[in-house]
Write a structure and sequence with these properties.
One of its GO terms (molecular function) is hydrolase activity, acting on carbon-nitrogen (but not peptide) bonds, in linear amidines. With about 425 residues, this protein is of the alpha/beta class. The chain has two domains: about 300 residues, Aminopeptidase; about 110 residues, Alpha-Beta Plaits (2-Layer Sandwich), CATH 3.30.70.360. It is built from 14 helices and 15 strands. Strand 1 and strand 2 form a beta hairpin.
Length: about 425
């Protein structure tokens, strides 16, 4: 922890106190964002709270303390998901859920995930200040391992809650240190068995709404603090191994080489051009690559890499995945290396229901904000839940569209306006 680090100070220095009304406190939100940021703080002033780590667990425990102080009844499932429940005037009605996650990518930012959790909690704090009780039960939720940085297979907690996690595949996963999923879960007091038992009766839930930073520039370009998500792209994660033959860099003639990195390099370069052939909203990214044996004077014998493929349209996303695998096969044959392929995550896109977008639009207008709809290229827990329940999302403006780095930033003015919109939206349910 750095004595110079003070996220609260940076957030509050430009805050307009006029946004403190109806029980919402910008100072409280900023202070809690800071306290969470101290857990797993990196030398670059980023966040290091990998899914199912002690740091993620510590962040959840801190949030649980705040939930209890706000009067919420706490429950935890076998995947480590946390639920803080406030009973409605009619406790028999299905609940409205809101929240996000507290895990991060390696050396990530301090808003992606925590802002959604704390915004949902701030709604409860505001109600407590005025003695308001909603008509329907309300739950603040913290999902486990949304980012998926540890096992290259994210949205883990929401998949467990909805019963869509492949338990057999989950049990086969290992992290970068060679630890199995079971070992990692045991380290935080859970197991594969508890994970399999995390499925919730979805009839208990009416809808889910998630607040998240935009991770793009559209709101900034339109000078709007908050926007409505119109649809969420479905991510697919692909694992490729290119297997050649390691050899001495000096003694192996160029004509006799089976260089796995040459194959991987051509593959990566070609992937860059493929998405635009299928859809304007399709994207494909190679963000993780490992070379073996990784010696300066050794011909690479194996390269393992991961491809992230996304689109808001299911058909073109699937066509792109098929084309990427064909490209791997073509290059492997041409360069006389082998390839292996496995899909570790495939989630269909989710459109946001029109009636929920209308509700969000009305909530924005209540606070003098022009409603704007925009797509989400990133996957979120709302994406998983949206295949089974009506979901909605609010985006909060991101400075320069930066995310997943220590430079990630959303002003406190924008964050608090997001809380007000969320609060009005949730109060519209009866």
């Amino acid at each position: 922890m750095s004595s110079e680090w003070d996220l609260h100070r940076e957030l509050i220095k430009d805050y307009d106190n006029r946004y403190d009304y109806n029980g919402v406190s910008g100072d409280r939100l900023a202070r809690r964002l800071h306290l969470l940021s101290e857990i797993g703080l990196t030398e670059d002033k980023g966040s290091m709270r990998i899914g199912f780590s002690q740091e993620e667990k510590q962040a959840k425990e801190l949030a649980i303390e705040w939930m209890k102080e706000a009067g919420l009844a706490i429950s935890k499932d076998g995947a480590g998901n946390i639920f803080g429940r406030l009973e409605g005037k009619d406790p028999e009605k299905p609940a409205v859920l809101s929240g996000s996650h507290l895990d991060s990518v390696p050396n990530g930012g301090h808003f992606d995930g925590p802002l959604g959790v704390l915004s949902a909690l701030e709604v409860v704090e505001a109600w407590r200040a005025s003695g308001y009780q909603p008509d329907v039960p309300y739950e603040v939720v913290i999902f486990s391992d949304e980012e998926g940085a540890r096992f290259n297979s994210g949205l883990t907690g929401s998949r467990a809650m909805t019963g869509t996690a492949d338990i057999e595949l989950q049990g086969e996963l290992t992290d970068q240190d060679g630890k199995s999923f079971e070992e990692v879960m045991n380290g935080i007091g859970l197991s594969t068995e508890t994970f399999a038992g995390a499925v919730r009766n979805l009839e208990e839930i009416e809808t889910f709404v998630e607040v998240h930073i935009e991770q793009g520039k559209r709101l900034e370009q339109n000078n709007l603090p908050v926007g409505i998500v119109e649809g969420i792209a479905g991510p697919s994660w692909l694992e490729f191994d290119f297997i050649g033959e390691a050899g001495h860099a000096g003694n192996t003639p160029m004509t006799e080489r089976q260089d796995a990195l040459v194959a991987a390099g051509e593959f990566i370069r070609n992937i860059y051009d493929l998405p635009r052939e299928y859809s304007d909203s399709a994207v494909a990214t190679v963000g993780k690559l490992n070379v073996y044996p990784n010696g300066i004077n050794v011909i690479p014998g194996k390269v393992a890499l991961n491809v992230d493929v996304r689109d808001i349209f299911e058909e073109t996303r699937n066509q792109l995945i098929e084309r990427i695998e064909k490209e791997a096969a073509r290059i492997s044959k041409e360069l006389e290396v082998e390839y292996r392929f496995r899909q570790t995550l495939k989630v269909d896109p989710v459109p946001i229901p029109d009636h929920l977008k209308e509700k969000l639009g009305q909530a924005l207008e209540q606070h003098g904000i022009e409603p704007m709809e925009l797509p989400s290229g990133a996957g979120h827990d709302a994406l998983i839940i949206g295949h089974y329940l009506p979901v909605a999302m609010l985006f909060v403006k991101s400075k320069d569209g930066v995310s997943h780095t220590p430079d990630e930033w959303s002003s406190l003015n924008d964050c608090v306006q997001g809380v007000h919109v969320l609060k009005s939206y949730i109060e519209s349910f009866s």
